[in-house]
Amino acid sequence: MGLGAKMRLGVVIALGGALLAGPAWAGAWDFDVPPPTAVRTIGAGATPSPVSLAKVVVRMNLDQQYGVVRHGVLCEESAPLQWRGKGDDASEPYRPVFYREFAAAGLKAGEDPTDLFEGADAGTGDLAAGVVIRNVRASFCARSSVFSGADAVSGKLLFDAEWQIYSRLRRQVVAKINTSGGYVVAKGVPDGLALAFQGAFAEHVRQLIASDEFRNVVTAPISLGGTRPGTSISYRPAAAGRRTVASSAESVAAVFSGDGHGTGFLISSDGYLLTNHHVVGEAKYVKIRWPDRSEAVGEVVRSDRRRDIALVKVDAAGRTPLVLRAGAATLGEAVYAVGTPIDQKFQGTVTKGIVSANRTYDGLSYIQSDVTVNGGNSGGPLLDEGGAVLGVTVWGIVINGAPAGLNLFIPIGDALDALALKPAT
Questions:
Q1: Residue 182's closest CA among 163, 202, 168, 162?
Q2: Residue 220 pLDDT > 80, yes or no?
Q3: Is 361 a domain residue?
Q4: Is there a single domain that holds both residue 163 and residue 283?
């Protein structure tokens, strides 16, 4: 079977579905592919942060021509290469390539996330990479083998890419790096076009790793500043004692800032409330709504972006603050998350799980639990069976839009330390 017949059958290969397709076509596609990039190892003593691959996006329209394939004994007949990619994510064939190049450079790759930065909750660790591929150019020759009947494809491919490095802790893109490179398939092989795409992608990963900007991002210590001053703030904590989870939930509020919302909880009788930094953002004032539907304006008085925690001052109106439990969470103990998931109409939702692990990522401690949380739970308390706060909801892993039961919480002691909060004596 010749190449033309294969084109009519619609054989999909590589990068989200590149297809050899189209009627006979003649034209010149000629370009040079630069030599491969040599990657130097990271300097001794450096401890680079792991980076996960979030998404590979190809910017080509359906049926867009991106090259030419020639066939025949002397490759004298031509047909266009047209894009047949479906969807906006072409990541799967390229994750192994990404991680292989990282390993070859002595770098660690983070665990696979599921979305390109959506909600900043995908994957684990701080840094995630996404890449947009543009300006794909390809020139190939496909000769049929009289022995196997398969086409032996050789040729070259070149494209440009923009890498974005995203920090989950900072909730922002911290670097944009442009690369340009390609790959040459010198010897004809049946999957030559797929091999060229993967080889070119590997070259772009090497260029990313070799760039000074990328190296500065992955080796620099995290220093996010925040609004924490040098002096401490005293707060009046709740008296020690057991409470029911239901009574503790009465001190958990919905927090509204801009077009979004999260959760917060009262920690002192003088009106201090904790939530996440990413819930309040850069706002000076936020709206607080209590479970009885009464509302108040809260002032953001302190925030630490690195630890993703913020302090809000609000009129407590006689409400009882939550008891804060110092010390590490016990593996396997029952815990409860309280918050306003998804929509404000679900305010006061309580879910139950267990403590799955105590983790450390990028030098920061977290409690891991399978308790169900969703967007809007951010900033809410993680309670033990005595109604005391163990941690603050910060982020969870979502797969295909559904919670994966892998959720992280800031230990309450770390939250207080980050904001320099001290109990009044």
A1: 202
A2: no
A3: yes
A4: no
Residue 107 belongs to a domain:
yes
Q: Can you tell me the distance from the alpha carbon of 172 to that of 166, in angstroms, rounded to the nearest whole number?
A: 6
Measured CA to CA, the distance from residue 259 to residue 7 in angstroms comes to 49
Determine the distance from the C-alpha atom of residue 319 to the mean position of all C-alpha atoms in its chain, rounded to a whole number.
37
Q: DSSP assignment, residue 178? A: E
* CA-to-CA dists, residue 283 to 93, 228, 255, 263, 297, angstroms: 42, 15, 12, 15, 12
pTM, 2 dp = 0.54
**Would you say 281 and 274 are in contact if contact means Cβ atoms under 8 Å apart?**
no
CATH number at residue 121: 3.40.50
Domain boundary (197, 219, 241) is at 219
Tokens encoding 1: 């079977």
Q: Among residues 194, 219, 244, which one ends one of the domains?
A: 219
- Per-residue pLDDT tens digits for 321-379: 999 998 889 999 999 999 999 999 999 999 999 999 999 887 889 999 999 998 899 99
Clarify whether residues 396 and 252 are in a common domain: yes
**Tens-digit pLDDT profile for residues 260-316:** 899 999 999 999 999 999 899 888 999 999 999 999 999 999 998 888 999 999 999
Percent of the chain with pLDDT over 70: 81
277 and 204 co-located in one domain: no
Rounded (10°) angle between helices 212-219 and 192-210: 70
